[in-house]
Amino acid sequence: MSAPPYMPLYVADYLGDTRHLTTEQHGAYVLLLMALWRGGGRLPAEPARLARLAGLSTARWARTAGEVTAFFTVEDGELTHPRLVAELARIERASEQRRAAGARGGAAKARRARSETVAPATPPPQPGRSPALASQTSESEPEKITYSAGGARAWAKPELDALEAALRQAAGPALNAAAPGLMNLAPILALLRPGQGPPAELEADVLPAVRARAARQRPGTVNGWAYFEPAVVQFRDRRLAGAPAPRSTEASHEPSRPAGSGRAAKRAVWAQILADEAAHGAGEADAPAGPPGP
Predict the structure, then answer these.
(1) Distance CA 68, CA 75 (A)
(2) What was the pLDDT predicted at 260?
(3) Contacts of 112 (CB under 8 A, 6+ apart)
(4) Which residues contact 207 (CB under 8 A, 6 or more apart)?
């Protein structure tokens, strides 16, 4: 181990032992202590080298060495200092203890991190979640995104991406691809979980409703997924009631707009809505009781 960059100096002890030294001898003694500290507690006991380390000529070192070297001992031809060696050993022990404590703390932190990142068992598909979407996130535990603060379950980001892709494919050219509202899937997610009513199903309700309503829109006119909410609710309610899926005209409730503008266009739109509703009511009135035949 290399010596630390600092050397403790106990002032009271030092002055108590060295009051008899001259200024030159004090300097030589302290310089030798520093060299010994950096050398790990031992230096070759060679007069010429000790003179250079003390910053003295060989002649002046010869006159000074007696008083200075009295604080050192010579072992196997090397100069050492018992108090300095003891301080080096104490600092090395403290350093080893800190390293061991740090290693234990690092190992414990790594174990906690591993336990927190272990993926849980794959949960069964939840109501409203397509098995195709669920299978795409069963191998890992990715980032979660929650769209409501009322305890709604979280959707994994890859699953949300797959849901958005399926919705866009169902809506087709009716979407305004540049509309920022299409990045918010909250209206559709709200329909896929229990809320105001039973949850809708992606394959049975959401995607068919989106296809049916988008088929009646002009290209690039839909700016958000909330536009499809009424149609999805209608498909869901009909499925739960055991009725066949609504026709595209029923799912839309927004007939294609005739050419023209102003009051005449509005009257034409409402006339078509009333005609669709009347035709639908007549069809239900004429329908026989009981389920349809094969």
Answers:
(1) 17
(2) 46
(3) none
(4) 166, 167, 170
CB-CB contact of 55 with 30 (8 Å): no
What is the model's pLDDT at position 78?
Answer: 94
Residues in the chain: 294
Rounded to 10 deg, the angle between the 82-117 and 23-38 helix axes is 40
Q: How distant is the alpha carbon of residue 57 from its chain centre?
A: 66
- Residue 224, SS3? coil
* CB-facing half-sphere around the CA of 251: CA atoms within 13 A: 28
Spans in the chain with pLDDT lower than 70: 1, 116-154, 195-196, 245-294
All residues at 6 or more sequence positions from 254 whose CB lies less than 8 Å from its CB, including other chains? 213, 216, 217
Looking at residue 293, what is its pLDDT? 45
- Tell me how far apart the alpha carbons of residues 72 and 7 are, in angstroms, rounded to a whole number: 17
CA dihedral 8, 13, 16, 17 (to 10 degrees): -70
The two structure tokens encoding residue 221: 């006119």
pTM over cut 0.70: no
Q: Which of 155, 183, 152 is CA-nearest to residue 167? A: 183
Task: Look up tokens 């389920």; give the residue.
Answer: 291
Q: What residue has token string 């990045």?
A: 183
Token reading at 214: 């988008």
Tokens of 253: 């409730």
CA distances from 125 to 122, 130, 132, 138, 207 (A): 9, 7, 10, 10, 18
What's the rounded Cα separation, in Å, for the pair 294 and 287? 15
Q: Which amino acid is present at 4? A: P
> For residue 122, what pLDDT is reported?
55
Map out the domains of the chain as residue ranges: 1-118, 132-282
Q: Please answer whether residues 190 and 147 qualify as being in contact, where contact means their C-beta atoms are separated by less than 8 angstroms.
A: yes
